[in-house]
Write a structure and sequence with these properties.
The chain is globular and about 60 Å long. It is of the alpha+beta class. A 12-stranded antiparallel beta barrel has the order 2-3-4-5-6-7-8-9-10-11-12-13.
């Protein structure tokens, strides 16, 4: 009984001195819980913001293997472009066939800038159709690794490394009665292409520096420029276009090889299409075995762009 009295007295003194106030303690606890809720909310929002920034930063880089669309345009009128084609000279029995192309195997996007790297390989053959046989006279081999960068919607760049060699085959040696020469190039290209809306196409220009060259050892510079335009739809799925390509080679004192092409495109999908075209080519031969000779060709052909 004495203990209960003592406890009651002590509680009374504490309440009188406001050292223990249940109402005050409830208010304190309420404020404490509110602070904890605010702190937890701020912490959670902070974590969410950090995660968003991290995801945004990682999304700037986009990698693609075997991209479907090229970022640097093809030189349609170029007689040595990496492609699958077959052309017939209108005035002779000469055919020019090529098997090959370029496969882009890696693409990296950083914001609006796109980078692509690929591998190209093509064999060009010059053939003469005889009544009872088909003579293969020359074979030219092209291998290169193109490195391309798209800086904006209009401007693209190309560089890389490549190899080119030209040969006479057995039929050519027998039919032409000439001796083959050693003709080969290792080269680095530097090209720019710029899209022009008012011609519905583009222009390009640049140079090729031969790091190794035979038989002309010290003549390493080659300049090339051209363009494509038109691309006017004449019926559904069929477009008409025009293209030109001009090369200047130091190995022949900067004499030119000029190509002018007009044709139609159909079955287009992204960078892929089939073309039927007429090409007029004049000037120095594209075939390395005859690099000092002049040529004049009127070619009708089909091209498979992929």
């Amino acid at each position: 009984m004495k203990i209960l009295i003592i406890v009651s007295v002590l509680l009374g003194e504490l309440l009188a001195q406001n050292k223990f106030n249940p109402e005050l303690e409830r208010k304190k606890n309420s404020i404490l819980f509110q602070k904890m809720d605010v702190t937890s909310s701020v912490s959670f929002q902070s974590k969410q913001t950090s995660s968003t920034v991290t995801n945004k930063d990682s999304s700037i880089y986009q990698k693609t293997f075997f991209p479907d669309e090229r970022i640097f345009p093809k030189f349609l009128a170029d007689g040595t472009a990496q492609q699958f084609s077959l052309n017939k000279n209108a005035y002779t029995r000469r055919w020019i066939g090529s098997i090959g192309g370029i496969q882009r195997f890696y693409e990296l996007r950083y914001g609006d800038i796109i980078f692509q790297i690929g591998l190209g390989a093509t064999v060009y053959a010059s053939l003469i159709r005889r009544p009872d046989m088909l003579e293969v006279q020359t074979a030219c081999f092209f291998v290169d690794v193109p490195i391309e960068i798209k800086l904006s919607e209009k401007l693209s760049l190309r560089t890389g490394y490549g190899h080119y060699s030209a040969h006479l085959v057995d039929d050519g040696i027998e039919a032409l009665k000439i001796t083959a020469i050693n003709y080969a190039k290792d080269f680095v290209p530097f090209f720019a292409a710029y899209k022009l809306c008012f011609i519905n196409g583009f222009v390009y220009g640049g140079l090729r520096f031969d790091t190794y060259t035979i038989p002309e050892y010290n003549k390493r510079w080659n300049f090339q420029f051209g363009g494509e335009g038109g691309n006017i739809e004449i019926i559904d799925g069929l477009r008409i276009y025009g293209a030109m390509d001009i090369k200047l080679k130091s190995e022949v004192n900067y004499a030119s090889t000029q190509s002018y092409q007009i044709g139609v495109k159909f079955l287009e999908q992204n960078s892929h299409a089939i073309r039927i075209a007429y090409t007029y080519r004049t000037g120095i031969e594209d075939r390395g075995q005859f690099y000092k000779d002049k040529t004049d060709l009127s070619l009708f052909g089909i091209f498979f762009d992929y």
